[in-house]
Amino acid sequence: MNKRIFSCLIFISTFLSAQQPVQIAFLSDVHFQDLYGSFSDHDFKGIMNPKTEKPTIMRTMDSQLHSTRIFNENYFAFLKALDDIAAKGIKIVAMPGDFSDDGQAYNLRGLHRILEQYHQKYGINFYLTTGNHDPVGPLLNDSGKDDFLGQNGKPFGIYSRENIGKSIDKIITKDIAESGYLEILNELKDFGFYPKKEDLFWSTPFDHGTFKNYTYKKGLETAEYSKRMYEVAEGFSVPDLSYVVEPVKDVWVVAIDGNTYIPKNINENPNNASNYKGASIGYNNVLTNKQHLIQWVRKLADEAKKNKKTLIAFTHYPMIDFNDGATNEIKNLLGEKKWQLERVPQEEVAKVFAEAGLQIHFAGHMHSNDTGIRKFGENVLVNVQVPSLAAYLPAYKILTIQSPDRMEVQTEVVNEVPRFDELFPLYEKEFDALQHDTTRILWNKDILKTKSYHDFMLFHLKELVRLRMIPDDWPKEFIQKGSKLNGEDLLLLIQNNDQLKEKGIRSETFKKWSFDDLLLDLYKFQAADELAKRDIPKERLEQYQILVKLYQENDPKENLFIKQLQSVFKILSLLSHGDPADHFEIDLKRKEIIKL
Question: Would you say 424 and 58 are in contact if contact means Cβ atoms under 8 Å apart?
Fold first, then answer.
């Protein structure tokens, strides 16, 4: 079948499906790394896996367990999610950034190949927007990683040029450099960044035309890289790959490029790739250095209203605080620079975009499941946080547009993933090699006994909390004191046996869990919101409610440790009682989120 006929058939089927409620799947923070890719300038194909007899380009388990994302098994989870979406008959997939892991050429090629396969086989149209890992900076930059797994079980380096990185054992390939915007646009233009013939409308913030006078030819002209530049600081022009597309009649999907790459030194050459700060702070920098996006959203919202279009936006970065009201408590307990608090958007972000007319926004970046709503007079904004497939709890979201005022959001958890344990024999080799390195804390080999992708990702979170979060985020003395306690000890710190007897509370039933379990459960709620309850025993959840109440009523006076525990239980309570984040309806008329 030739391409033109295929495109016509896709267009007809998409048009007909528009008579039904429109569905969009949101797949965020895939962090795709091509395990079975290749380099254009080097014959290295990876290390041989005895289980599959296939060469594999992979990172070490040690590096995954110190990172907020995994690098390897998410490859299989991505394919599983796409198979699920195809089986459900969904034809529109939006990817809110970090679709790659640092935008290397070999990963972008692998991603392109997979997206094209699913487009050709199932007629799925993909719409991407950029995250802080794609690109890492606005321009192509030499880079590499020290933590690829070698055949001997030890890490080795892959770098884009000599004299960068720490590994003596290494290979050099230009395909590991961090791509800039131009390289990403050239490789992935077919996935939203350029218009398709069958799109009913497509435009950028720099296009001054209107919906009424749109043509495909005009769309192609405005899509050119040179026409998508703005001045982020005086004398520093960088690209903005934002766009709006109408893939089916009357639905406008707005892909906002929320990356704001600000120069570190304004006296430097604008072409110096290493002179730009990372974009991970998100929308707070949009307010100061990328204000044209706000005007553009206002223009789109007005035009959508005029032409009776439903506007759905997605970006990599959240527009609403994702900590369910716990941010100040976390700040007081841990300090301003802990728990990724620098990524929390100011309240002004939600206000500005709500007043610009935006109502529905999907985001990623935080690898968490959450929903937030803000009302400003007549304006309302709902921010839906899409979890990552590369972190606990691995999931994606499906939006069903029932009407312009009523929408349903469903969270699809990816529990079972074929081949998720394909690389385990190679990790065995890594673990054996690591045992001779006395300078490192060993990761827990029991992760290789997990029987499902869900359990593997829960184990990843557990190790991440042990190896990184607790040492980095928490006061050392607090952890030393707490780690000796169990649930009963925490209860008896604030109530004596007589008081507990009076309340009908049996303290010995609290003995089953430890202080470490409490901290892990806190991170489960941060990542999975209400879905964390499936991974915490029911009895323990009930005991947490008792402790929350008792610690709230208790006056710690000058006891710092009790004060800190009081904060922990308050944060736990707030994180576990946010807006619905599993299956819910958004009613824009009533300005409400309703749990389904």
Answer: no
Provide the percentage of residues in the chain whose pLDDT is more than 70.
97
Q: Work out the end-to-end distance of the chain between its first and last CA atoms, rounded to an integer number of angstroms.
A: 43
Nearby residues of 283 by Cβ (< 8 Å), 6 or more positions away: 258, 315, 317, 318, 319, 345, 346, 349
The dihedral formed by the CA atoms of 315, 320, 326 and 327, expressed in degrees to the nearest 10: 80
Distance of CA 252 to the CA centre of its chain: 23
Secondary structure element (H or E) that encloses residue 572, with its range? helix 560-575
Per-residue pLDDT, 440: 78
Q: Give me 343's structure tokens.
A: 């990524």
CA distances (Å), origin 185, targets 41, 111, 454, 585: 21, 13, 34, 35
Decide if 144 contacts 150 (C-beta within 8 A).
no
- Tens digits of residue pLDDT in 163-190: 999 999 999 999 999 999 999 999 999 9
Non-local CB neighbours of 2 within 8 Å, separated by 6+ positions: none
All residues at 6 or more sequence positions from 349 whose CB lies less than 8 Å from its CB, including other chains:
283, 284, 286, 287, 319, 320
Per residue in 422-450, pLDDT (tens digit) is 999 999 999 999 988 877 789 999 999 99
For 68-188, where are the E strands, in sequence order? 92-96, 125-129, 144-149, 155-159, 170-172
**pLDDT at site 18:** 44
Amino acid at 275: N
CA distance 490 to 479: 13
**In this model, does residue 250 exceed pLDDT 90?**
yes
Alpha carbon distance 528, 530 (integer Å): 6
